[in-house]
Amino acid sequence: MLPPPATAPKSEWRDWARQTRAVLPDVSEAVTAHLRAFLHAHGARHVLAYRPLDGEPDPSALAGDFELYTTRARFRPEPRLTLHPWHTATEISRFGALQPPGDAPQVALDSIDVILLPALAYDWRGRRLGYGGGFYDRLLPSFSGATVGVIPSGLLVDGLPGEAHDCPVAWLATEDGVFPVT
Question: In terms of pTM, does the model score above 0.70?
Answer without folding.
Answer: yes
